[in-house]
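Lab notebook, design round three. We kept the backbone fixed and only want residue identities now. Task for the bench partner: fill in a sequence for the structure below.
Input structure tokens:
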């Protein structure tokens, strides 16, 4: 048996020089070859550790260089295996007795080897194990001799950490290179006798790819969407958020790391699969994408663009608690607008005024009345101002600028746009900073109202720069409630943010992130890496990857704890829509 690991080539490398049947020329040296200008060297594994775990060579299989690894194995006949084990046990026993006769202390290495040989002989006799003659060879490739020597030194260091030894195929480089080609012959040797378990531990049974747990009811794998290519194997990374413990996702990364590019790629591919998507876009980066795919752009702050926080969903598909939920969402919105303390003092007055405004508009808890035009925020404020409750009057005074003052262009009229399009992008760059968090909460309330319908349709809300919402305690609590309940309504909450330390530094922010079964980390700033490493339980290698990875490379963490690094990949025709660009 010969197992060949073909070197992973990047897209820019192309096929090797020479014909399809072999290289144009090979220059032979004592310890390396030069194959059409590419330097190659073969080493063989000569020293094996006493004990290994399955996949102990995985560090070599996934090493980020051009390496061929070949395992040649040939079974040993049972009679020959028994004879060899008998001779081995005799040699070990003779050595042990000779040391005893000379008064020497027992050698623990010999004692352990004798015990292992005895155990293996018994298992071979019972046919529960077999012996194999096996040889492991590695051929490394590099563009220069210096680079080749560096790669070989690093490989030797990785195996030395496993107590394994590599020996160069001096003056036998042609034979060594042939042994690692996919032709199934080994002119190099030498072979080592290994038991079944030891040989199996050398095979590439571990994988840096994510374990596929996404199976439908019939057991067939669900494709999901393509996120990119695995940086270790080159395999495509498909991910299906809808088969995870919850549908939420979070993308964290430093500015310029490729967060928006990845989020837009995921958005497009969810649209391809029929998901209805709403985007909260603080900087107007998604407007051109929405226009290209026939979506709707709602430019909040523009003349005539309004969102009524009291609008009710379609009564034919809404849940029985839609009216109550709208009233509670209005409490959260008021808390963001005027501050949590003032909102709490006038909570009772606000609740009475809200229900009275609905009743005056002919709307009751009976869903059949929800087709009537809903009242707006100005009607609620008017009722509080006319009430005899001092707390309500104070709250009405605080809210008055948002319906009749400088900020009155957002809440003082019915909703101005349709809610049934496949993609709706809410741009906030036309709003003052004081209203952006409130607008985010208002949009989330609107999306949440639509998600409360019982149609079972997949919906996703993407929040870019989510730290704007999570910095406010009231908005953070609303996000947390949404993250906990979204799965019940087939809603996915996708958050993208760059201020990882600020988000993870608050209890509510960390809780919102923890309720995302899909977690994607891009390059992190050194100032934030400690908080990120602690929150996501990163090892030293993953931490180093996030500090040095190129733009667009990311670490995807699954709900079951498995992880994979990948490079985001988009269709060439869509690339221009995915790069960050501010709408004008």
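Proposed sequence:
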């Amino acid at each position: 048996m010969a197992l060949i690991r073909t070197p992973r080539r990047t897209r820019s490398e192309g096929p090797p020089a020479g014909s399809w049947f072999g290289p144009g020329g090979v220059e032979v040296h004592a310890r390396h070859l030069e194959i059409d200008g590419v330097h190659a060297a073969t080493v063989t594994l000569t020293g094996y550790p006493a004990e290994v775990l399955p996949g102990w060579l995985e560090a070599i299989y996934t090493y980020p260089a051009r390496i061929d690894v070949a395992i040649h194995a040939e079974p040993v006949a049972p009679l020959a295996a028994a004879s060899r084990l008998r001779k081995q046990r005799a040699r070990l026993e003779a050595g042990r007795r000779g040391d005893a006769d000379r008064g020497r202390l027992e050698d623990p290495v010999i004692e352990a080897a004798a015990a292992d040989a005895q155990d293996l002989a018994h298992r071979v006799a019972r046919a529960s194990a077999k012996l194999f003659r096996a040889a492991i060879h590695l051929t490394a490739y590099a563009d220069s001799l210096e680079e080749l020597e560096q790669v070989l030194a690093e490989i030797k260091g990785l195996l030395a950490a496993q107590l394994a030894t590599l020996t160069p195929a001096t003056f036998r480089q042609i034979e060594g290179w042939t042994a690692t080609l996919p032709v199934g012959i080994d002119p190099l040797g030498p072979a080592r006798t290994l038991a079944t378990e030891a040989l199996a531990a050398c095979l590439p049974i571990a994988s840096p790819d994510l374990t596929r747990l996404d199976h439908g009811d019939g057991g067939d794998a669900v494709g999901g969407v393509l996120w990119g290519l695995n940086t270790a194997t080159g395999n495509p990374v498909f991910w299906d958020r809808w088969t995870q413990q919850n549908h939420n996702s979070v993308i964290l990364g430093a500015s310029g790391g490729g967060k928006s590019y990845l989020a837009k790629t995921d958005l497009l591919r969810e649209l391809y699969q029929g998901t209805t998507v709403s985007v909260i876009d603080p900087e107007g980066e998604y407007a051109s994408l929405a226009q290209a795919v026939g979506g709707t752009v709602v430019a909040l702050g523009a003349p005539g663009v309004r969102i009524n926080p009291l609008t009710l969903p379609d009564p034919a598909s809404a849940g029985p608690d839609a009216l109550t939920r709208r009233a509670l969402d209005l409490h959260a919105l008021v808390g963001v607008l005027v501050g949590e303390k003032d909102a709490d003092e006038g909570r009772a007055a606000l609740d009475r005024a809200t229900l009275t405004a609905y009743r005056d508009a002919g709307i009751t808890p009976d869903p059949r009345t929800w087709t009537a035009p809903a009242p707006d925020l100005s009607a609620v404020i008017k009722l509080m101002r006319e009430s005899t409750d001092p707390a309500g009057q104070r709250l009405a005074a605080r809210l008055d600028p948002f319906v009749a003052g400088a900020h009155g262009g957002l809440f003082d009229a019915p909703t101005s746009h349709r809610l049934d399009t496949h993609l709706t992008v809410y741009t906030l760059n036309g709003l003052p900073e004081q209203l952006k968090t409130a607008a985010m909460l208002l949009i989330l309330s609107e999306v949440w109202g639509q998600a409360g319908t019982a149609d079972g349709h997949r919906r996703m809300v993407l929040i870019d720069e989510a730290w704007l919402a999570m910095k406010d305690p009231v908005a953070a609590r609303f996000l947390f409630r949404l993250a906990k309940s979204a799965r019940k309504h087939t809603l996915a909450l996708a958050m993208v943010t760059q201020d990882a330390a600020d988000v993870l530094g608050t209890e509510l922010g960390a809780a919102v992130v923890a309720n995302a079964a899909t977690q994607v980390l891009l390059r992190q700033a050194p100032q934030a890496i400690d908080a990120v490493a602690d929150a996501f339980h990163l090892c030293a290698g993953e931490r180093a990857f996030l500090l040095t990875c190129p733009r667009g490379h990311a670490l995807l963490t699954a709900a079951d704890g498995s992880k994979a690094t990948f490079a985001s990949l988009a269709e060439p025709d869509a690339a221009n829509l995915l790069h960050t660009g501010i709408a004008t």
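Keep this in mind before ordering anything: The chain has 21 helices and 19 strands.
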